[in-house]
Design brief:
Strand order of the largest sheet: 5-4-3-6-1-7-10-9
CATH topology: Dihydrofolate Reductase, subunit A
Oligomer: single chain
Protein name: Dihydrofolate reductase
Domain Bacterial bifunctional deaminase-reductase C-terminal: 3-179
Largest sheet: 8 strands, mixed
CATH superfamily: Dihydrofolate Reductase, subunit A
Pfam families: RibD_C (PF01872)
Number of domains: 1
InterPro entries: DHFR-like_dom_sf (IPR024072), RibDG_C (IPR002734), Riboflavin_Biosynth_HTPR (IPR050765)
CATH architecture: 3-Layer(aba) Sandwich
């Protein structure tokens, strides 16, 4: 069965973006960027894949992406951010999306359960915090890119009801720029 995987960058204080959706404060270096392009090429948006040399890289882990409206609208000039994946945007307020994207107005848990039953690679939960909070019962794995920076305020990694959910660390990579990538499996 396919898994729902929340693959996300997070600050030391638990924010995935600043109050205005900023994410450019996360440090990195060439070695880390190369690793991401090699390990998870499909998580790189289509419009920057050529710049990073992964335009022809096959999908290795994910073939489907699920995102909330805020994540979808990070760059309003980009209306089809993951053209190399099957895309779903969960929003009850978005008027319309690019024709290549399936707009989901309600029941994201039902959608995820249906997607998990289909053949294919895993499902990439791209963001944001509110959607992750709503989908927490269905998240099978976390891949957290932890950056050595305090944001102070912003969009939390999980924004939802109090529901303690156990995960077990399974793997960890570290990089000279101070980033740790940790895989967690649901207990």
């Amino acid at each position: 069965m396919r898994k729902l995987v929340y693959y996300i960058a997070v600050s030391l204080d638990g924010y995935i973006a600043g109050p205005g959706g900023e994410y450019d404060f996360y440090p990195g270096d060439d070695a880390y960027a190369a690793w991401m392009g090699q390990r998870f090429p499909e998580t790189i948006p289509t419009h920057i894949r050529a710049m990073l040399g992964v335009q022809d890289a096959p999908n290795k882990t994910f073939d489907t992406v699920l995102m909330g409206r805020g994540t979808y609208e990070i760059d309003t000039a980009v209306t089809n951010p993951y053209a190399h994946l099957k895309q779903y945007v969960v929003s009850s307020t978005l008027e319309q999306a690019d024709p290549a994207i399936t707009l989901v107005r309600s029941d994201p848990i039902g959608l995820v359960r249906e997607l998990k039953q289909q053949d294919g690679l895993d499902i990439y939960l791209c963001g944001g915090g509110k959607l992750a909070g709503e989908l927490l019962p269905e998240i099978d794995q976390l891949i957290i890119k932890s950056y050595p920076v305090i944001a102070g305020a912003g969009i939390p990694m999980i924004d939802g009801d109090f529901q303690p959910t156990g995960f077990t660390p399974a793997e960890r990579e570290s990089f000279d720029c101070g980033v740790f990538v940790t895989w967690y499996s649901r207990k």
